[in-house]
Fold this sequence. Notes:
single chain; about 500 residues; alpha+beta; ten-stranded mixed beta sheet; membrane; transmembrane
Amino acid sequence: xxxAACLPYSVKMNLRDLLRGKRxxxxxxxxxxxxxxxxxxxxxxxxxxxxxxxxxxxxxxxKKQLSKEDIPVxxxxxxxxxxxxxxxxxxxxxxxxxxxxxKDEKEDLKKRRKKELExxxxxxxxxxxxxxxxxxxxxxxxxxxxxxxxPGEAIGIPGLxxxxxxxxxxxxxxxxxxxxxxxxxxxxxEVDTSGRKTNSLKIECxxxxxxxxxxxxxxxxxxxxxxxxxxxxxxxxxxxxVTIPIRINFRPVPLLYDPGSDDNIDRKVxxxxxxxxxxxxxxxxxxxxxKFYPTIRIVIADDSxxxxxxQGDNVDHYIMPFGVGWFAGRNxxxxxxxxxxxxxxxxxxxxxxxxxxxxxxxxxxxxxxxIVSGLVGRDRIxxxxxxILEGDEEGDCLVQTIGTYGTLKNFPECHRVDRVTxxxxxxxxxxxxxxxxxAYSRFAHTEFFYEGLGKLRSAACSxxxxxxxxxxxxxxxxxxxxxxxxxxxxxxxEYFKYNVKCWNKDNV
Length: 508
Protein backbone atom coordinates (compact mmCIF):
# COMPACT_ATOMS: atom_id res chain seq x y z
CA UNK A 1 0.00 0.00 0.00
CA UNK A 2 2.98 2.31 0.40
CA UNK A 3 3.49 2.35 -3.37
CA ALA A 4 -0.15 3.04 -4.09
CA ALA A 5 -0.19 5.86 -1.60
CA CYS A 6 2.19 7.77 -3.86
CA LEU A 7 -0.19 7.54 -6.84
CA PRO A 8 -2.91 10.03 -7.89
CA TYR A 9 -6.47 9.52 -6.55
CA SER A 10 -7.93 8.44 -9.94
CA VAL A 11 -5.33 5.73 -10.28
CA LYS A 12 -6.06 4.43 -6.78
CA MET A 13 -9.83 4.15 -7.55
CA ASN A 14 -9.20 2.14 -10.70
CA LEU A 15 -7.01 -0.23 -8.77
CA ARG A 16 -9.71 -0.86 -6.16
CA ASP A 17 -12.25 -1.70 -8.90
CA LEU A 18 -9.78 -3.95 -10.54
CA LEU A 19 -9.13 -5.74 -7.24
CA ARG A 20 -12.85 -6.29 -6.52
CA GLY A 21 -13.78 -7.38 -10.05
CA LYS A 22 -10.93 -9.67 -10.98
CA ARG A 23 -9.57 -10.71 -7.58
CA UNK A 24 -5.90 -9.96 -8.43
CA UNK A 25 -3.45 -11.41 -5.98
CA UNK A 26 -1.75 -9.20 -3.47
CA UNK A 27 1.67 -9.93 -4.94
CA UNK A 28 0.54 -9.05 -8.45
CA UNK A 29 -0.93 -5.81 -7.22
CA UNK A 30 2.35 -4.85 -5.64
CA UNK A 31 4.18 -5.45 -8.92
CA UNK A 32 1.69 -3.31 -10.81
CA UNK A 33 2.03 -0.57 -8.22
CA UNK A 34 5.78 -0.66 -8.51
CA UNK A 35 5.67 -0.43 -12.30
CA UNK A 36 3.16 2.39 -12.28
CA UNK A 37 5.14 4.20 -9.64
CA UNK A 38 8.36 4.01 -11.61
CA UNK A 39 6.57 5.03 -14.79
CA UNK A 40 5.22 8.12 -13.10
CA UNK A 41 8.68 9.02 -11.81
CA UNK A 42 10.14 8.57 -15.33
CA UNK A 43 7.48 10.82 -16.85
CA UNK A 44 8.13 13.47 -14.22
CA UNK A 45 11.90 13.35 -14.79
CA UNK A 46 11.41 13.53 -18.54
CA UNK A 47 9.33 16.67 -18.23
CA UNK A 48 11.87 18.24 -15.89
CA UNK A 49 14.82 17.36 -18.13
CA UNK A 50 12.98 18.57 -21.21
CA UNK A 51 12.18 21.88 -19.58
CA UNK A 52 15.76 22.35 -18.38
CA UNK A 53 17.13 21.38 -21.81
CA UNK A 54 14.90 23.84 -23.54
CA UNK A 55 15.87 26.44 -20.99
CA UNK A 56 19.59 25.75 -21.59
CA UNK A 57 19.09 25.95 -25.35
CA UNK A 58 17.32 29.24 -24.91
CA UNK A 59 20.13 30.60 -22.78
CA UNK A 60 22.67 29.34 -25.31
CA UNK A 61 20.87 31.14 -28.15
CA UNK A 62 20.72 34.29 -26.05
CA LYS A 63 24.43 34.10 -25.29
CA LYS A 64 25.28 33.79 -28.96
CA GLN A 65 23.34 36.96 -29.72
CA LEU A 66 24.97 38.83 -26.85
CA SER A 67 28.37 40.43 -27.54
CA LYS A 68 31.17 39.97 -24.99
CA GLU A 69 31.47 43.73 -24.78
CA ASP A 70 27.82 43.94 -23.56
CA ILE A 71 28.56 41.90 -20.44
CA PRO A 72 29.05 44.19 -17.42
CA VAL A 73 32.35 43.97 -15.51
CA UNK A 74 33.70 45.45 -12.30
CA UNK A 75 37.20 46.85 -12.64
CA UNK A 76 39.82 45.98 -10.04
CA UNK A 77 41.53 49.35 -10.06
CA UNK A 78 44.74 48.27 -8.35
CA UNK A 79 45.44 45.72 -11.09
CA UNK A 80 43.87 47.59 -14.00
CA UNK A 81 46.13 50.58 -13.42
CA UNK A 82 49.14 48.35 -14.09
CA UNK A 83 47.89 47.73 -17.63
CA UNK A 84 47.20 51.29 -18.67
CA UNK A 85 49.13 53.97 -16.84
CA UNK A 86 48.76 56.54 -19.58
CA UNK A 87 51.63 58.84 -20.63
CA UNK A 88 54.39 59.14 -18.03
CA UNK A 89 54.47 62.30 -15.92
CA UNK A 90 57.58 64.22 -14.93
CA UNK A 91 57.77 64.67 -11.18
CA UNK A 92 58.46 68.03 -9.56
CA UNK A 93 61.97 66.92 -8.58
CA UNK A 94 62.71 65.38 -12.00
CA UNK A 95 65.66 66.34 -14.15
CA UNK A 96 64.05 68.09 -17.13
CA UNK A 97 65.88 67.80 -20.43
CA UNK A 98 64.13 70.79 -21.99
CA UNK A 99 64.38 73.31 -19.17
CA UNK A 100 67.47 75.01 -20.56
CA UNK A 101 66.28 75.07 -24.19
CA UNK A 102 64.83 78.07 -25.98
CA LYS A 103 61.36 77.48 -27.45
CA ASP A 104 62.48 77.64 -31.12
CA GLU A 105 65.46 75.43 -30.40
CA LYS A 106 63.26 72.85 -28.68
CA GLU A 107 60.69 72.75 -31.50
CA ASP A 108 63.40 72.33 -34.13
CA LEU A 109 65.06 69.55 -32.14
CA LYS A 110 61.71 67.90 -31.47
CA LYS A 111 60.85 67.86 -35.18
CA ARG A 112 64.14 66.19 -36.12
CA ARG A 113 63.80 63.74 -33.25
CA LYS A 114 60.32 62.71 -34.38
CA LYS A 115 61.62 61.90 -37.86
CA GLU A 116 64.46 59.76 -36.51
CA LEU A 117 62.14 58.08 -34.00
CA GLU A 118 59.82 56.96 -36.79
CA UNK A 119 62.79 55.38 -38.61
CA UNK A 120 63.89 53.64 -35.42
CA UNK A 121 60.43 52.26 -34.66
CA UNK A 122 60.10 51.02 -38.20
CA UNK A 123 63.38 49.10 -37.89
CA UNK A 124 62.43 47.69 -34.50
CA UNK A 125 58.93 46.66 -35.59
CA UNK A 126 60.36 44.56 -38.41
CA UNK A 127 62.54 42.69 -35.92
CA UNK A 128 59.95 42.32 -33.16
CA UNK A 129 57.91 39.20 -32.50
CA UNK A 130 54.30 39.70 -33.60
CA UNK A 131 51.33 38.77 -31.43
CA UNK A 132 50.07 35.34 -32.53
CA UNK A 133 46.65 34.22 -31.30
CA UNK A 134 45.67 30.54 -31.49
CA UNK A 135 41.95 29.91 -31.99
CA UNK A 136 40.24 27.00 -30.23
CA UNK A 137 38.84 23.84 -31.86
CA UNK A 138 41.52 23.80 -34.55
CA UNK A 139 42.15 20.44 -36.26
CA UNK A 140 45.71 21.41 -37.21
CA UNK A 141 48.90 20.44 -35.41
CA UNK A 142 51.93 22.64 -36.10
CA UNK A 143 55.03 24.18 -34.43
CA UNK A 144 54.18 27.50 -32.78
CA UNK A 145 57.75 28.55 -31.92
CA UNK A 146 61.36 27.39 -32.00
CA UNK A 147 62.00 27.18 -35.75
CA UNK A 148 65.09 28.93 -37.11
CA UNK A 149 66.60 28.87 -40.57
CA UNK A 150 69.99 30.10 -41.71
CA PRO A 151 69.67 32.69 -44.51
CA GLY A 152 69.58 30.88 -47.88
CA GLU A 153 69.26 27.43 -46.30
CA ALA A 154 66.38 24.98 -45.75
CA ILE A 155 64.66 23.37 -42.77
CA GLY A 156 62.02 20.70 -42.37
CA ILE A 157 58.86 21.79 -40.57
CA PRO A 158 58.08 19.15 -37.93
CA GLY A 159 54.81 18.27 -36.18
CA LEU A 160 52.40 18.97 -39.04
CA UNK A 161 49.13 17.02 -39.24
CA UNK A 162 45.40 17.34 -39.87
CA UNK A 163 42.98 15.74 -37.43
CA UNK A 164 39.53 15.56 -39.03
CA UNK A 165 36.92 13.01 -37.89
CA UNK A 166 34.63 13.83 -40.81
CA UNK A 167 34.99 11.66 -43.91
CA UNK A 168 35.59 13.76 -47.03
CA UNK A 169 36.09 12.87 -50.65
CA UNK A 170 39.15 15.10 -50.83
CA UNK A 171 41.47 16.65 -48.23
CA UNK A 172 43.40 19.77 -49.17
CA UNK A 173 45.95 21.91 -47.31
CA UNK A 174 47.76 25.06 -48.42
CA UNK A 175 51.00 26.66 -47.26
CA UNK A 176 52.41 30.12 -48.00
CA UNK A 177 55.45 32.15 -46.91
CA UNK A 178 56.84 35.65 -47.49
CA UNK A 179 60.62 35.32 -47.34
CA UNK A 180 61.02 31.79 -48.66
CA UNK A 181 59.57 29.01 -50.82
CA UNK A 182 58.02 25.66 -49.91
CA UNK A 183 58.81 22.19 -51.20
CA UNK A 184 58.66 18.52 -50.26
CA UNK A 185 61.61 16.23 -49.61
CA UNK A 186 59.76 13.05 -50.60
CA UNK A 187 56.65 12.06 -52.53
CA UNK A 188 53.87 9.96 -50.99
CA UNK A 189 51.63 7.78 -53.18
CA GLU A 190 48.12 9.05 -53.97
CA VAL A 191 49.09 12.59 -52.95
CA ASP A 192 49.03 15.51 -55.41
CA THR A 193 51.20 18.58 -54.84
CA SER A 194 51.27 21.85 -56.76
CA GLY A 195 53.32 25.01 -56.42
CA ARG A 196 56.55 23.33 -55.42
CA LYS A 197 59.48 25.72 -54.87
CA THR A 198 57.12 28.69 -54.81
CA ASN A 199 55.80 30.68 -51.88
CA SER A 200 52.40 28.97 -52.23
CA LEU A 201 52.22 25.16 -51.98
CA LYS A 202 49.06 23.02 -52.19
CA ILE A 203 48.76 19.38 -51.13
CA GLU A 204 45.67 17.24 -51.89
CA CYS A 205 44.68 13.62 -51.27
CA UNK A 206 41.56 11.49 -50.91
CA UNK A 207 43.13 9.69 -47.92
CA UNK A 208 43.86 11.68 -44.75
CA UNK A 209 46.53 9.24 -43.59
CA UNK A 210 48.47 9.69 -46.84
CA UNK A 211 48.07 13.45 -46.60
CA UNK A 212 49.50 13.50 -43.08
CA UNK A 213 52.37 11.30 -44.20
CA UNK A 214 53.18 13.81 -46.94
CA UNK A 215 53.23 16.62 -44.36
CA UNK A 216 56.16 14.86 -42.66
CA UNK A 217 58.32 15.90 -45.63
CA UNK A 218 57.42 19.59 -45.92
CA UNK A 219 60.48 21.82 -46.42
CA UNK A 220 60.89 25.60 -46.06
CA UNK A 221 63.72 27.18 -48.10
CA UNK A 222 64.74 30.75 -47.26
CA UNK A 223 65.21 33.01 -50.30
CA UNK A 224 65.35 36.49 -48.73
CA UNK A 225 68.01 37.05 -46.08
CA UNK A 226 65.91 39.23 -43.78
CA UNK A 227 68.34 38.72 -40.92
CA UNK A 228 66.71 38.50 -37.50
CA UNK A 229 63.15 38.71 -38.82
CA UNK A 230 60.31 36.20 -38.62
CA UNK A 231 58.76 34.67 -41.71
CA UNK A 232 55.15 34.01 -40.71
CA UNK A 233 54.33 30.96 -42.82
CA UNK A 234 50.61 30.24 -43.23
CA UNK A 235 49.05 26.75 -42.90
CA UNK A 236 45.44 26.50 -44.13
CA UNK A 237 42.85 23.69 -44.09
CA UNK A 238 39.18 24.40 -44.90
CA UNK A 239 38.36 27.54 -42.87
CA UNK A 240 41.23 27.01 -40.44
CA UNK A 241 44.31 29.25 -40.68
CA VAL A 242 47.37 29.00 -38.45
CA THR A 243 50.72 30.78 -38.45
CA ILE A 244 54.09 29.07 -38.22
CA PRO A 245 56.82 31.60 -37.20
CA ILE A 246 60.27 30.87 -38.66
CA ARG A 247 63.20 32.98 -37.43
CA ILE A 248 65.79 33.90 -40.07
CA ASN A 249 69.21 34.06 -38.47
CA PHE A 250 72.66 32.55 -38.39
CA ARG A 251 73.66 30.04 -35.79
CA PRO A 252 75.45 31.83 -32.92
CA VAL A 253 79.21 31.85 -33.28
CA PRO A 254 80.88 30.52 -30.10
CA LEU A 255 83.27 32.99 -28.48
CA LEU A 256 85.28 30.79 -26.15
CA TYR A 257 88.21 31.65 -23.90
CA ASP A 258 90.66 28.98 -22.81
CA PRO A 259 90.98 29.08 -18.99
CA GLY A 260 94.02 26.82 -19.08
CA SER A 261 94.50 23.49 -17.36
CA ASP A 262 95.02 25.10 -13.95
CA ASP A 263 91.93 27.38 -14.15
CA ASN A 264 94.05 30.33 -13.02
CA ILE A 265 92.15 33.56 -12.37
CA ASP A 266 94.77 35.49 -14.41
CA ARG A 267 93.43 33.75 -17.52
CA LYS A 268 89.86 34.66 -16.65
CA VAL A 269 89.98 38.27 -15.43
CA UNK A 270 91.55 41.52 -16.66
CA UNK A 271 91.39 44.64 -14.47
CA UNK A 272 90.49 47.77 -16.46
CA UNK A 273 90.38 51.43 -15.48
CA UNK A 274 90.39 54.92 -16.94
CA UNK A 275 92.59 57.60 -15.42
CA UNK A 276 92.84 61.35 -15.85
CA UNK A 277 95.27 63.65 -14.00
CA UNK A 278 95.40 61.33 -10.97
CA UNK A 279 98.66 59.43 -11.30
CA UNK A 280 99.09 59.30 -7.53
CA UNK A 281 95.77 57.47 -7.21
CA UNK A 282 96.25 55.07 -10.10
CA UNK A 283 99.72 54.06 -8.86
CA UNK A 284 98.22 53.25 -5.46
CA UNK A 285 95.57 51.18 -7.24
CA UNK A 286 98.22 49.18 -9.10
CA UNK A 287 100.18 48.54 -5.89
CA UNK A 288 97.06 47.35 -4.09
CA UNK A 289 96.18 44.98 -6.95
CA UNK A 290 99.66 43.50 -6.95
CA LYS A 291 99.42 42.81 -3.23
CA PHE A 292 96.60 40.32 -3.78
CA TYR A 293 96.93 39.40 -7.46
CA PRO A 294 100.64 39.66 -8.40
CA THR A 295 100.35 38.66 -12.05
CA ILE A 296 96.83 39.62 -13.13
CA ARG A 297 96.76 41.85 -16.24
CA ILE A 298 95.83 45.52 -15.81
CA VAL A 299 94.70 47.77 -18.68
CA ILE A 300 94.76 51.55 -18.20
CA ALA A 301 93.31 54.14 -20.59
CA ASP A 302 94.83 57.57 -19.98
CA ASP A 303 94.01 60.99 -21.48
CA SER A 304 96.18 63.04 -19.06
CA UNK A 305 98.84 65.63 -19.92
CA UNK A 306 101.71 65.57 -19.20
CA UNK A 307 101.92 61.79 -19.49
CA UNK A 308 103.63 59.68 -16.83
CA UNK A 309 104.66 56.17 -17.80
CA UNK A 310 102.63 53.41 -16.12
CA GLN A 311 103.73 50.55 -18.36
CA GLY A 312 105.06 47.52 -16.48
CA ASP A 313 104.84 43.76 -16.13
CA ASN A 314 101.27 42.81 -17.01
CA VAL A 315 100.31 46.51 -16.97
CA ASP A 316 99.35 47.96 -20.35
CA HIS A 317 99.17 51.76 -20.50
CA TYR A 318 97.25 53.24 -23.46
CA ILE A 319 97.66 56.96 -24.18
CA MET A 320 94.71 58.92 -25.61
CA PRO A 321 94.29 62.51 -26.86
CA PHE A 322 94.13 64.95 -23.97
CA GLY A 323 90.77 65.17 -22.25
CA VAL A 324 89.03 62.98 -24.83
CA GLY A 325 86.75 61.77 -22.10
CA TRP A 326 85.39 59.25 -19.66
CA PHE A 327 83.40 56.85 -21.84
CA ALA A 328 85.88 57.03 -24.71
CA GLY A 329 88.51 55.78 -22.26
CA ARG A 330 86.22 52.98 -21.12
CA ASN A 331 85.76 51.86 -24.71
CA UNK A 332 89.51 51.80 -25.32
CA UNK A 333 90.25 49.87 -22.12
CA UNK A 334 87.54 47.26 -22.72
CA UNK A 335 88.63 46.81 -26.35
CA UNK A 336 92.03 45.53 -25.16
CA UNK A 337 90.70 42.78 -22.88
CA UNK A 338 91.59 39.22 -23.92
CA UNK A 339 89.94 37.33 -21.06
CA UNK A 340 86.31 36.22 -20.71
CA UNK A 341 85.71 38.58 -17.78
CA UNK A 342 86.75 42.17 -17.14
CA UNK A 343 86.79 43.91 -13.77
CA UNK A 344 85.96 47.61 -13.90
CA UNK A 345 87.40 49.84 -11.16
CA UNK A 346 87.84 53.60 -10.79
CA UNK A 347 91.40 54.90 -10.61
CA UNK A 348 91.02 55.92 -6.94
CA UNK A 349 89.88 52.48 -5.75
CA UNK A 350 92.08 50.21 -3.63
CA UNK A 351 92.11 46.41 -3.37
CA UNK A 352 91.65 45.20 0.22
CA UNK A 353 91.40 41.71 1.78
CA UNK A 354 87.63 41.70 1.06
CA UNK A 355 88.25 42.23 -2.66
CA UNK A 356 87.66 38.60 -3.56
CA UNK A 357 87.52 38.34 -7.34
CA UNK A 358 87.13 34.55 -7.09
CA UNK A 359 83.65 35.07 -5.62
CA UNK A 360 82.66 37.23 -8.59
CA UNK A 361 84.01 34.63 -11.00
CA UNK A 362 82.02 31.91 -9.22
CA UNK A 363 78.81 33.84 -9.89
CA UNK A 364 79.50 34.41 -13.59
CA UNK A 365 80.66 30.82 -14.02
CA UNK A 366 77.53 29.36 -12.47
CA UNK A 367 74.66 31.86 -12.78
CA UNK A 368 72.70 33.24 -15.70
CA UNK A 369 74.08 36.74 -15.19
CA UNK A 370 76.32 39.13 -17.17
CA ILE A 371 77.50 41.66 -14.59
CA VAL A 372 78.10 41.25 -10.86
CA SER A 373 79.08 44.08 -8.52
CA GLY A 374 80.21 44.53 -4.93
CA LEU A 375 80.47 47.17 -2.23
CA VAL A 376 82.54 50.34 -2.58
CA GLY A 377 84.18 51.93 0.47
CA ARG A 378 81.67 52.47 3.24
CA ASP A 379 78.70 52.55 0.91
CA ARG A 380 75.85 50.13 1.37
CA ILE A 381 74.82 47.75 -1.38
CA UNK A 382 73.38 49.62 -4.35
CA UNK A 383 69.98 48.25 -5.41
CA UNK A 384 68.60 50.13 -8.41
CA UNK A 385 65.90 49.35 -10.97
CA UNK A 386 65.63 51.23 -14.24
CA UNK A 387 62.82 51.69 -16.73
CA ILE A 388 61.73 53.87 -19.63
CA LEU A 389 58.03 54.69 -19.34
CA GLU A 390 56.02 55.52 -22.42
CA GLY A 391 55.20 59.19 -22.67
CA ASP A 392 53.64 61.52 -25.21
CA GLU A 393 54.86 63.69 -28.07
CA GLU A 394 57.14 65.48 -25.63
CA GLY A 395 59.00 62.24 -25.01
CA ASP A 396 59.23 59.29 -22.63
CA CYS A 397 60.50 59.24 -19.03
CA LEU A 398 63.67 57.69 -17.70
CA VAL A 399 62.92 56.18 -14.29
CA GLN A 400 65.30 55.07 -11.56
CA THR A 401 63.92 53.50 -8.38
CA ILE A 402 65.18 51.56 -5.37
CA GLY A 403 64.46 47.84 -5.55
CA THR A 404 65.43 44.41 -6.86
CA TYR A 405 63.95 41.51 -8.81
CA GLY A 406 64.87 39.03 -6.09
CA THR A 407 68.06 37.10 -5.32
CA LEU A 408 70.10 34.82 -7.56
CA LYS A 409 69.53 31.11 -7.22
CA ASN A 410 72.32 29.59 -5.08
CA PHE A 411 73.69 33.09 -4.36
CA PRO A 412 71.43 34.63 -1.67
CA GLU A 413 73.81 37.57 -1.16
CA CYS A 414 73.30 38.69 -4.77
CA HIS A 415 70.26 40.67 -5.89
CA ARG A 416 69.00 41.05 -9.46
CA VAL A 417 69.06 44.74 -10.42
CA ASP A 418 69.37 46.93 -13.52
CA ARG A 419 72.20 49.22 -12.39
CA VAL A 420 75.31 48.50 -10.32
CA THR A 421 78.30 50.45 -8.98
CA UNK A 422 81.63 51.17 -10.74
CA UNK A 423 83.13 48.09 -9.11
CA UNK A 424 81.86 45.20 -11.23
CA UNK A 425 82.97 42.05 -13.03
CA UNK A 426 81.34 41.64 -16.42
CA UNK A 427 81.34 39.26 -19.34
CA UNK A 428 83.67 40.97 -21.77
CA UNK A 429 81.57 40.23 -24.86
CA UNK A 430 78.34 41.48 -23.26
CA UNK A 431 79.94 44.73 -22.08
CA UNK A 432 81.35 45.32 -25.56
CA UNK A 433 77.94 44.61 -27.07
CA UNK A 434 76.47 47.60 -25.21
CA UNK A 435 79.56 49.79 -25.39
CA UNK A 436 80.18 53.26 -23.98
CA UNK A 437 79.01 56.35 -25.84
CA UNK A 438 82.06 58.66 -26.21
CA ALA A 439 79.79 61.70 -26.16
CA TYR A 440 79.85 61.37 -22.37
CA SER A 441 83.22 62.96 -21.79
CA ARG A 442 82.95 64.44 -18.29
CA PHE A 443 80.83 62.00 -16.34
CA ALA A 444 78.31 59.18 -16.92
CA HIS A 445 77.48 55.80 -15.49
CA THR A 446 73.75 55.05 -15.42
CA GLU A 447 73.53 55.81 -19.14
CA PHE A 448 75.49 52.61 -19.87
CA PHE A 449 72.92 50.55 -17.97
CA TYR A 450 69.98 52.31 -19.63
CA GLU A 451 71.44 51.35 -22.99
CA GLY A 452 71.93 47.84 -21.62
CA LEU A 453 68.26 47.34 -20.71
CA GLY A 454 67.13 44.11 -22.31
CA LYS A 455 70.74 43.14 -23.08
CA LEU A 456 72.51 42.95 -19.71
CA ARG A 457 71.50 40.90 -16.67
CA SER A 458 73.06 42.43 -13.58
CA ALA A 459 73.37 41.53 -9.92
CA ALA A 460 74.58 43.46 -6.87
CA CYS A 461 76.31 41.32 -4.24
CA SER A 462 77.44 42.02 -0.69
CA UNK A 463 80.21 39.41 -0.36
CA UNK A 464 83.00 41.41 -2.06
CA UNK A 465 84.26 44.89 -1.31
CA UNK A 466 86.82 47.40 -2.56
CA UNK A 467 88.35 50.42 -0.83
CA UNK A 468 87.80 53.99 -2.02
CA UNK A 469 90.54 56.56 -1.43
CA UNK A 470 89.02 59.72 -2.87
CA UNK A 471 91.80 62.08 -3.90
CA UNK A 472 91.68 64.98 -6.32
CA UNK A 473 93.55 68.11 -7.35
CA UNK A 474 92.53 71.50 -8.68
CA UNK A 475 93.27 70.64 -12.31
CA UNK A 476 91.27 67.42 -12.08
CA UNK A 477 88.31 69.18 -10.45
CA UNK A 478 88.35 71.83 -13.16
CA UNK A 479 87.81 69.22 -15.86
CA UNK A 480 85.66 66.88 -13.75
CA UNK A 481 83.00 69.47 -12.98
CA UNK A 482 80.61 69.53 -15.92
CA UNK A 483 79.96 73.25 -16.19
CA UNK A 484 76.86 74.93 -17.52
CA UNK A 485 77.59 74.47 -21.21
CA UNK A 486 78.30 70.77 -20.85
CA UNK A 487 75.06 70.20 -18.92
CA UNK A 488 73.13 72.09 -21.59
CA UNK A 489 74.70 69.89 -24.25
CA UNK A 490 73.93 66.78 -22.19
CA UNK A 491 70.26 67.69 -21.79
CA UNK A 492 69.82 68.25 -25.51
CA UNK A 493 71.76 65.10 -26.33
CA GLU A 494 69.73 62.80 -24.10
CA TYR A 495 66.44 64.49 -25.03
CA PHE A 496 67.13 63.58 -28.64
CA LYS A 497 68.99 60.27 -28.28
CA TYR A 498 66.65 58.51 -25.84
CA ASN A 499 63.44 60.33 -26.89
CA VAL A 500 62.89 61.43 -23.29
CA LYS A 501 61.60 64.55 -21.64
CA CYS A 502 62.78 63.96 -18.06
CA TRP A 503 64.52 61.66 -15.63
CA ASN A 504 62.58 60.63 -12.51
CA LYS A 505 64.95 59.47 -9.77
CA ASP A 506 64.58 58.29 -6.21
CA ASN A 507 66.68 60.37 -3.84
CA VAL A 508 69.47 57.80 -3.43
